[in-house]
Design goal:
It is built from six helices and seven strands. It is an alpha+beta fold and 185 residues long. The protein has one domain: 3-Layer(aba) Sandwich (Aminopeptidase), CATH 3.40.630. Strands 1-2-3-4-5-7-6 form a seven-stranded mixed sheet, with helices on both faces. Bound molecules: coenzyme A. Coenzyme A (COA) binds next to strand 4, helix 3 and helix 4. The site of coenzyme A (COA) has 18 residues, from strand 4, helix 3 and helix 4.
Length: 185
């Protein structure tokens, strides 16, 4: 944690086409963090992330003009499910509550775009579990997630993919978490 940074100076915004210049830095930061954690990572191309920005389906955090954090949303299974993916906070901005702000913004955006959809995520990180729990997510078995093949393809780059395959997609190392809007009426 960098104590010289005042978290109020970090802006959290819905990204748009003007933020495309940050895409390579975002992808490099995600790859470097995955290496440190020893996990694999869903492969995302420059174009895929840039398109998310153009569609207003990404959240970016900036400290002046410096990249601080990111996440995007995607819908699966005919828009019945929405996942927040690619959450990253650059090293020097960690432990300032920034991931929490980014996730809250992505959560609000997802609820607005697809009010009926169930929100879900797969994670092995304690910080994300904590944030998701605060947002109203609960841990669920994998059988309650989308069966959209395209979503599960994202797990192919993970070092634990063999576990997922061996168990017929019923279990893996990550915890599945779900927010069901029907339970929050
Ligand atoms: C995980 C990550 C996004 C957290 O970002 P951050 O801005 O430092 O998180 P926040 O400051 O918002 O912390 C949120 C909560 O998690 C806790 N937390 C933060 N990092 C943590 C860690 N490494 N282990 C356990 N708890 C952690 C915080 O104390 C805080 O809890 P609190 O509300 O009780 O104070 C960041 O460390 C990161 O980018 N890591 C690499 C990529 C990654 O793991 N992405 C998630 C993939 S699912």
């Amino acid at each position: 944690m960098d104590t010289n940074i005042n978290s109020e100076d970090i802006k959290v915004l819905i990204a748009d086409a003007s933020h495309e210049r940050y895409v390579d830095e975002i992808l490099d930061t995600i790859s470097a963090a995955a290496k440190v954690r020893g996990t694999g990572i869903a492969k995302r191309t420059h174009e895929y992330v840039a398109q998310k920005m153009r569609e207003g389906k990404a959240v970016i955090a900036l400290y002046n003009d410096e990249f601080a954090g990111f996440c995007y949303i995607e819908s699966w299974g005919n828009k019945q499910y929405v996942a927040n993916s690619g959450l990253i906070v650059a090293d020097k901005f960690r432990r300032h509550g920034l991931a929490k702000r980014i996730k809250q913004t992505a959560f609000n955006l997802s609820r607005k775009m697809w009010p009926e959809a169930k929100l879900f995520g797969l994670t092995s990180g304690g910080a994300v579990m904590k944030i998701n729990t605060e947002l109203g997510y609960v841990p669920v078995p994998f059988s309650e997630l989308t069966d959209d093949e395209a979503f599960w393809k994202g797990c192919q780059g993970c070092v634990n993919h063999d576990v997922l395959m061996r168990t017929d997609r019923r279990y893996c190392i990550c915890t599945a978490m779900l927010y069901d809007p029907a339970k929050h009426k």
